Amino acid sequence: MKVVVTGSSGLLGRHVAEALVEAGHDVLGIDMAPPSKGGWQHVTADLTDLGATLQLIGPCETVVHIAAIPRPTGRAPAEVFRTNLAAAYNVVEAAVKAGASRFVYASSFSVLGYPFAENFQAPHYLPVDQNHPIGAQDAYGLSKWLGEEVVEAAVRRGAFSAVSLRMPWIQTPETFFNEVGPRRVLADSSRDLWSYLDARDAADAFLKALAWKGEGHLRTFLSAADSYSEEETAVLAERAFPGVPFSRPIPGHGAVIDNVHARETLGFEPRHSWRSYKNS
Fold it and tell me: How many CB atoms are located within 10 Å of the residue 113 CB?
């Protein structure tokens, strides 16, 4: 299958591109930066340029859109919003014109407002699932939510079927202890819902999104099976979100983001946990 992957040089994008190549797909990667290693055809481009995007995304079966500014910090919020929305619109339009039958969008659990919301709100219930109300506030979370809506508009036009994968903090064995380790002891870790996803499991979810047999636009959350905390989840939730109801018990170190919907629709099962990573 001919697959275009945007953002193919980033942490998530390169894992997705590698998994697609290993699965036998013909991959074109588009990114502002060259990849750290090969395996797929690469072109360097600014996807906020509609003309360049239309030129580069040619006939293909699937477009996987990952390219984005990944957080609302370190840049002006207006730049984050403008860049992410312009890229989403341009890539969707290019996918339509290229005749793609499937569009896979890298969304975020930030559509709920986590972790960057200025007016932090507790979840309506736990664990969080696909029925939880949207709560985006910041430029990044809003760009991800509206990116989903750009995809939805194309689906509504009959252009393609689509899957939006709402993911928490992407991690690898090499990044986890440096990035998550210092944060998980802070009270602000509740803003992350103590959630993460191994990049290899994320890549597997993208493969499963390509194989989805459904129609329309599937939106689903993904998570590792466990939290990133060393404390049990019920203890964390009671301290951070007193009074928030549980739709079902979360035993032990279980995840606050529910994978049931992803399992039922995509067959997604996370296989990797930070608890098996080696801390060097």
Answer: 23
Q: Is residue 145 part of a domain?
A: yes
Mean pLDDT of 127-145: 98
Separation CA 134–CA 112 (nearest Å): 5
CB atoms closer than 10 angstroms to residue 207: 18
Count of CB atoms situated within 10 Å of the CB of 101: 13
**Is 162 part of a structural domain of the chain?**
yes
Tell me how far apart the alpha carbons of residues 279 and 58 are, in angstroms, rounded to a whole number: 43
Beta-strand runs (E) in the chain: 2-6, 26-31, 41-44, 62-65, 102-108, 161-167, 169-171, 196-198, 217-221
Residue 57 included in any domain: yes
Domain range spanning residue 120?
A: 2-274
Q: Which two tokens stand for residue 54?
A: 């239309």
88 Cβ contact partners less than 8 Å away, ≥ 6 residues apart: 65, 68, 105, 143, 146, 147, 150, 151
Please name the residues in contact with 207: beta carbons below 8 A apart, sequence gap of 6 or more: 19, 20, 23
pLDDT of residue 37: 82
CATH code, domain with 178 = 3.40.50.720
pTM for the predicted model, two decimal places: 0.97
Q: Is the pLDDT of residue 279 over 90?
A: no
pLDDT at residue 280 in the model: 62
SS3 category, 158: coil
Evaluate whether residue 154 is within a structural domain.
yes
Domain count, the chain: 1
Report the sign of the C-alpha dihedral through residues 102, 37, 44, 143, in that order: positive
Strands 62-65 and 41-44: unpaired
State the amino acid at position 262 in one-letter form: A
